[in-house]
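Reply to dn_fold:

You asked what the input looked like. This is it:
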Amino acid sequence: MKPVAIFRFFPIEGPGYFATFLDNNHIPWLLICIDQGESLPVNINSFSGLALMGGPVSVNDNLPWLEPVLALIKQAVANNVPVVGHCLGGQLLSKALGGVVAASPIKELGWGKVSVADNPVAHEWLGTLKEFESFHWHGETFSLPAEAMLLLSSPYCKNQAFALGMHLGMQCHVEMTEDMVRDWSKVNAAEIVQNLTSPAVQSAEAMQTNLVSRVPQLHVIADRLYGKWISALKS
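and this is what came back:
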């Protein structure tokens, strides 16, 4: 099988559990560190799927790699190569498909409940699950592209995830590991303190509480989402 291309946009926002899941399922992958200036592939034909990770920038920023990445996403969609986007990656997928990314009324930083939409597509991706606790780190939100179906919502962000065929865009972070939670809460300590008045922002200490149980529970959800996504990978 051809490898899954994984685009990283910020050093501490790597593939995390997503890479572990691919390894566990014997699926090859290639990490392309855009944050380190690595060259983007010319086309998507060498890859079975495309994964887009998170990052602190905005899809509305003037970034040198933005248009080439959007073009590759559009190429993947046109060629039925599955795309999965995490947070910034979900916003990139939305924008490539004609959606809009704008400031979210309430910033979400830390653990918080998300609910599963009651529609046939959401049931295909998540079965009978009704809600779960996910990890969040975003100040912007995406609109649903045309014909995409809502999968997840939170009390502070209506559009937490969508699916369009086998393409999956998420605002929340199901790829987290214990180390990633610790790293993000430490590196972004100032951002946390500045936003503690938000009802959806936790302290660094609260974010790191009970990780030994929270993270494996999140991985159960990730297994379900990623499991459906890999079923459409190109050989």
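The mean pLDDT is 97.
Hope that clears it up.
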